[in-house]
Prior knowledge:
Elements: H1 2-19, H2 28-42, H3 45-51, H4 56-89, H5 94-127, H6 141-154, H7 169-180, E1 188-192, H8 199-207, H9 210-215, E2 218-223, H10 230-241, H11 246-253, H12 259-270, E3 273-280, H13 283-289, E4 302-307, H14 310-316, E5 321-323, H15 330-342, H16 351-365, H17 372-382, H18 388-396, H19 398-403, H20 411-425, H21 432-437, E6 447-448, H22 449-459, H23 466-470, H24 475-488, E7 493-497, E8 504-508, H25 511-524, E9 528-531, E10 560-564, H26 576-579, E11 585-589, E12 616-619, E13 644-646, E14 667-669, E15 677-678, E16 691-693, E17 698-699, E18 714-719, E19 736-741, H27 749-755, H28 757-761, E20 765-770, H29 777-785, E21 792-796, E22 814-818, H30 827-830, E23 838-842, E24 852-855, E25 865-869, E26 876-879, E27 889-893, E28 913-917, H31 921-925, H32 934-937, E29 942-946
Helix pairs in contact: 1-2, 1-4, 2-5, 4-5, 7-8, 10-12, 15-16, 15-17, 16-18, 22-24
Amino acid sequence: xxxxxxxxxxxxxxxxxxxxxxxxxxxxxxxxxxxxxxxxxxxxxxxxxxxxxxxxxxxxxxxxxxxxxxxxxxxxxxxxxxxxxxxxxxxxxxxxxxxxxxxxxxxxxxxxxxxxxxxxxxxxxxxxxxxxxxxxxxxxxxxxxxxxxxxxxxxxxxxxxxxxxxxxxxxxxxxxxxxxxxxxxxxxxxxxxxxxxxxxxxxxxxxxxxxxxxxxxxxxxxxxxxxxxxxxxxxxxxxxxxxxxxxxxxxxxxxxxxxxxxxxxxxxxxxxxxxxxxxxxxxxxxxxxxxxxxxxxxxxxxxxxxxxxxxxxxxxxxxxxxxxxxxxxxxxxxxxxxxxxxxxxxxxxxxxxxxxxxxxxxxxxxxxxxxxxxxxxxxxxxxxxxxxxxxxxxxxxxxxxxxxxxxxxxxxxxxxxxxxxxxxxxxxxxxxxxxxxxxxxxxxxxxxxxxxxxxxxxxxxxxxxxxxxxxxxxxxxxxxxxxxxxxxxxxxxxxxxxxxxxxxxxxxxxxxxxxxxxxxxxxxxxxxxxxxxxxxxxxxxxxxxxxxxxxxxxxxxxxxxxxxxxxxxxxxxxxxxxxxxxxxxxxxxxxxxxxxxxxxxxxxxxxxxxxxxxxxxxxxxxxxxxxxxxxxxxxxxxxxxxxxxxxxxxxxxxxxxxxxxxxxxxxxxxxxxxxxxxxxxxxxxxxxxxxxxxxxxxxxxxxxxxxxxxxxxxxxxxxxxxxxxxxxxxxxxxxxxxxxxxxxxxxxxxxxxxxxxxxxxxxxxxxxxxxxxxxxxxxxxxxxxxxxxxxxxxxxxxxxxxxxxxxxxxxxxxxxxxxxxxxxxxxxxxxxxxxxxxxxxxxxxxxxxxxxxxxxxxxxxxxxxxxxxxxxxxxxxxxxxxxxxxxxxxxxxxxxxxxxxxxxxxxxxxxxxxxxxxxxxxxxxxxxxxxxxxxxxxxxxxxxxxxxxx
Length: 950
């Protein structure tokens, strides 16, 4: 992990050397020397990371290197920002200029001296490399030795049948069908899931299933794991498939390396073979083995593989069948726990004791969240505990016992620890800081994808290679790809996807992996999580189990802090003495995911003070609901290193002018509760902004200048009254735009749109709010007509008519229309959209006199999601046969005049879910079994009816 931290810090310092030549004048030589020393020592950190686990001296050595690298970047950036601010101010008077030159010289000397001290520290540490036996090697014997024990623990054998198997019958049945039935012609069937989710257990049950053993002529099982030899793997497969005698085994050993793949390939063409490849970690592994699995198209042989990495499954076979085992439900979890922990107890102990153990056990099992391995580890711990006192002790700290296994040293427990840690150890160095950053967020928190990836960018974890820059890829693109890789590696889980089921909107962590994350973050001193405190006592770090507090003296300086607050806290942030002055990230979380407010308003300023090196600040949802306004303290203006600041949903009193000092800001989320705030004309100073979110409604003196924000990708929201549309022409990187039409008519609109044509054509997401009324409907259409490449469009307010060429918007996949008052003939444009996947029709989408909604045959060919909400006046909806052939999910909500669902729904074969909400009881009763409309929906797997009304 130190290698990861130092790597991105080396890149950052290298950037200053190459891009800030003028700003480093006078100290550049010292910076180059320090950078060279860091670059040298970086090559040894992989070995140091491996060896420090069992060596306290190396652990301290690594911590010192890490701190020195952070300190170097802090010093350089502080200096560059000060030089830049002086240049921008300018100096009029000659005597003042001479005085400034003198002061600047003194400053450069001080900075040079500080860099020299850091360089000497790094050089001294470099001298210790030999003392500690740390070498510049990539695949050291140490690394192999460290993996050797893990490999033994992970190796699986088909003859070892799990006796504690619960809740996998449906999974086994489905997988068996995909392997043996003729209608399923998948060459590769993959079981994908996080460590401990039961992949191998299910694969074994499939492997030994009677239908499988009857269907296939020969079977072979091989565990790949992380350390493997290609030759050894292929030999083992071949030996098992042919049931080789001793003589044949000797012959196989004498075959050349390139002969075995050919023999295996021929055998799979001639006979029906099932080969199980258990625990493949990397796509490269498949590449090394795939020559042995090349077969004719009509081959009846199949491959079953298990992996934590979805990329492996897709890489092995694009058309293969991917299966993710579902978590155990409450009943299955208890049944599995009972088989291990309660077996044989009833006859040997008092009935009252047994009942109490049963009660405690059921409560503890809930913490396992359906992860089979967690249930097994917990049950294994309790199987040897014979008193209620022992069970209560474990119950009080169940999270610790599951993740760390205090109290047991047996193999089963070591396996449980390794199986989760292996996923982390396998992460490439650039993903490890990204994974550890997730530890900031509370247990069960739904983490917004956009916030998370922008925090990574603010921290400097994401960098663009020249090749990526030239291809037009942004840091946001890279960050999203890295998030997706963490999902594919099963170390985080997808929470919510977009309405088209393609993009990740939120993610979350399984409790056990979060414990692992916090434990690793503790070891690395990557971040600290603290809770607010009462009666002004010191705030202490929360351990890797959310139920315990440890009193840890961190090894190195605290750089990141997550603060979990309670409304009764008397202290909201550790004092400067408790945390030091080197924080880079400060994320506050209230007692729930919604709104919160501290016990006393006067505590709030402490949340913003003494954080001069801060890069990320998040304080969201701070609103008491009674109109108490929060005034931002002046100290925020000194946080010139800030890259990310979110005050979303907080009741902030004003947008103070000193926010203009934050010239490094990349993301500013100022969607605060006050929607009539005055905003001074200082945003133009923040010329590194990439994502700007303003309140939905605000005031300004004159027009806000935005033309300087050339890096801006997200602009939400532009008020036509207080922003000049002309500025859009200068925002060449803009991809997401929200405009509020708050005054009319717009002067010279065509001329403005012509000037901004290239920018508007690059917009991918557009939202238009028409607050003016019908007379601005034509202006809405004019703006939409210039955004022909959009993927997502929201129109709220009178629109009347869409652009004539709207039906040919081939990129448009998401469309929301609300209060648009569209003419009747506009449906003909909508239904021809070739690639529309998500359509939401809300409140008076069409003119008042329209009572019948018709989806004609062949309309909406790729639509997957449809939402109808509060469509007043619509009494009938017709869906002709052939309409919406790809629809998966339909939501009908508050359409109270709609009498029934359309008959055409019964023709939709791709339908997966119908959700009816806040509809009349009579409407809902028709859809129930025996109701007059039941035949229209009986084929839909999921029918949800909520909140019917009289």
